Amino acid sequence: MAALLNPTSRRLATAACRRISTPAAVDALVAHRNFQERCSSSLVDVSGRFSEMLDATQRYYVVGGKGGVGRTSMAAALAVKFANHGEPTLIVSTNPIRSLGDSFEQDVSDSKVVRIDGFDSLFATEIGHVKLEGGCPGVGSFINNLMGSMGLGTLADLSMLNDILSRFPPGLEEAYALSELIKSIELQGTDKFRRIVLDAPSTGHTLKLLSANNWIEKFLGIAVKGVNAASSMPIFKSSLEKWQEISSGLEKLRQQIAGVHELLVDPRSTEFIIVTIPTMMAVSESSRFHSSLKKYGAHTRRLVINQVLPPSASDCRFCASKRREQARAFSAIREDRELSGLKLIQAPLLDVEVKGVPALRFLSDSVWK
């Protein structure tokens, strides 16, 4: 990692290549340079400057994208950049894979908010492993006891009902955990955390997080009605207080999830940032991701293109092939109706693993200009 601190070693990942000059390599170079015209010489789109983010009203930044594109590194680098500019910042990972702690080389697991070494105003936590007991808190155990006391067996005898009550829909656990964290953050005001960067899981999980509100509205609406109806039945009169408690708990959960969704889709509070890499497969998924985000009402302004090879007139066969692939991906981005309107930020392919605070500081200065 010391190499990162040595300016002479800060270079992009270019192998020791044999000098060649083929028509294909020249074409790829021209296409890449045409794309570069949209961006400043510092690899960052002029229209997507970091200063705009500092002046913006958004407090929450959700960094998402397909697996393997460097979401966590980009989210961590953004949080570091905010902290370096004196912004009290919290970075939160809702990813079930504990990669955020690995990036900072600190234990930030189990929802513990930890101050990152080397910073006065940068904190991190992972909430991707938060689990709730039972699909609807208290419902399963209560009905089990009630059925047992009536000699009707248990939920284990009713597999369908047991399955419904013992599981949360995809995204609901993350939404609940996020709602608890956001509630705590909002109570502390902006003095504690001015910026909150969310390292979101892969595209599918992120969309499930956004869609959890739709599911919870339907399911809990039905569940509350069912609980209220059951509480009015003579056979359940003796347990009326418990039924009312469950009904109240379900309604509270519904309101919490709705609150998270409202915050995530409010453009004054939240901005989604999509991270991709210059491959056709990644660009296609990013396009679908942006389309789905719009469907759920989420606001996206920036597209980070990670692992970009630098332009060069000299290439080995492998690098020339990769440049042609990247040039095709750049062209696809320009022509894609979902991605072409986003502000572009290019992130270089580095010759070192982005791990630890020194590496993240370097990456933040390289990307978030």
Provide an overview of this structure:
The structure is a single chain. This protein is of the alpha/beta class. The chain has a single domain (49-367), classed as P-loop containing nucleotide triphosphate hydrolases (Rossmann fold). The protein has helices at 2-5, 23-36, 50-55, 71-84, 100-104, 139-149, 159-165, 172-192, 203-231, 240-264, 280-295, 317-335, 357-367; strands spanning 60-64, 89-93, 114-115, 122-126, 195-199, 270-276, 300-308, 343-348. It has an eight-stranded mixed β-sheet, sandwiched between helices. Strand 6, helix 11 and strand 7 form a beta-alpha-beta unit. Helix 4 packs across helix 13 (357-367) and helix 8 packs across helix 10. Residues 1-46, 133-140 and 149-162 have low confidence and may be disordered.
Helicity range? 40-55%
Reported CATH architecture: 3-Layer(aba) Sandwich
* Overall morphology: globular
How many DSSP helices? 13
CATH class: Alpha Beta
Q: Report on the biggest sheet.
A: 8 strands, mixed
Give start-end ranges of low-pLDDT stretches.
1-46, 133-140, 149-162
Q: What's the total count of β strands? A: 8
- Assigned CATH superfamily: P-loop containing nucleotide triphosphate hydrolases
**How much of the polypeptide forms β-strand, as a percent range?**
5-15%
Rg from Cα: 24 Å
Distance between the first and last residues' Cα: 22 Å
Work out the count of structural domains.
1
State mean pLDDT (0 to 100 scale). 76
Strand order of the largest sheet: 3-4-2-5-1-6-7-8
The ordered string of helix (H) and strand (E) elements is HHHEHEHEEHHHEHHEHEHEH
Do you know the CATH topology? Rossmann fold
Q: In terms of structural class, how would the helical and strand content be classed?
A: alpha/beta
